[in-house]
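Allow me, if you will, to draw on your knowledge of protein folds for a short while. I have a record of one protein: its chain in single-letter code and its fold written as discrete structure tokens. I remain grateful for any guidance, and I place the record below:
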Amino acid sequence: MKLFNSYTNTVEEFKPMDGNKVKMYVCGPTVYDYAHLGHARCYITWDVLYRYLKFKGYDVTYCRNVTDVDDKILKKAEKEGKTPTEVSQYWYRQFVNSMNALNNLPPDIEPFATKTLGEMISIVKDLIANGYAYEANGDVYFRVKKFPQYGYLSKQPIDQLESGARIEVGDLKEDPLDFALWKRDEKFGYNSPWGVGRPGWHIECSAMSRKYLGKTIDIHAGGADLIFPHHENEIAQSECANECKFVNYWLHNGFVTINKEKMSKSLGNFLTIDDMLKNYDANTLRLFILTNHYRMPVEFSDEALTAAQAGAKRLVNAKQTPINENLDITTTDEYKAFVEAMDEDLNTSKALAILFDLATRANKDEKDAFTILYKLGTALGFTFEKASVSDEDLAKAAAHVSEVLGQTFNSMDEVLELRKQARAEKNWDIADKIRIALDESGIIVKDTKEGTTLELK
């Protein structure tokens, strides 16, 4: 299996440190607002990596943090007259609901920043003791120039970073490049050896990954927007505190863009996951994201989502037969082609082509095609449960048929009874009008040996 390592800028063979055990850390949300499509891109991407590693037989420990102490949370709390804890807990619950709705697996470990303050303080103390950090009037800063490798991940030479660095009014830094490990905050802070304050954003992930995964981890993943300064700073403080390599494989997903601009809350051009799920199901959003390689930008458009919706329906509507639990799919050509694609730095576009081919073959009643489709599709996080038709759907459809035929139907049963009668009398005109009217209402009629069934398109 090969993965693109952002640190070395090369595709490398993936070799875990400890046999088949994989330690994987993903930067989680700052919980103060709804998650948007950019977050969906990030967390679906790493959900697929998590699923695929497990599919390949690796023993994965997936840790994804929750940042519940941050300037944005504090501002929201002040604006709404709530405590920071009330704000962060509410939005954390909304985030979990959004992730569940996308069919993302929960991480094995989900630590909260405010529950890991002791570990953060311990790392900061070590950095001060070793000369890598200094205290200044309640703030603590990291000495960037003491770490020669600084800038390697983001490919920014130190002199280039220096030219853009500025010391803001009130800063007590020795150097403009130095970044905060701990910030004085007497209003919302916590006790520390340097007075009441709160952690800098970067130290949170260093402390949580070390506590739950160890000093060196296999995979650290997140959005490309985190490369600098967040991940760059994580490397500096972790390697100086721990005196060893921090991460073996750095992985980053590309942005979701609208009109070629990154989707973000700061730009105000974001679409929430909850809003998206009102019009598209989880399979559609997943397909939209996985059609593109994870490192490339994804341009949002209604046309792209409509195409993804059609593709998702094609997979779910493939003719379903009982799963052959005795089938060893690892011996099949489809499995081998799927693994070959995914082993090429998660080439999900190639993998999807295999799924679509299997869907076509399942519709032709090819033996075991659906079993293979189901098992490979599940490895990418797709679900194959057909959406049930609600009473509201049936009532709307019956009303539409009433309008088309010019007669009143009080229930779908009455519609289906007329269709059955029309087919028996070979009155194909009426039967076709009913079928077309139901299709326009988003309902497919299927006649089987067991009887007539209705499915959502």
In short: The two ends are 37 Å apart (CA to CA). The mean pLDDT is 94. The chain has three domains: 2-257, 280-379, 391-456.
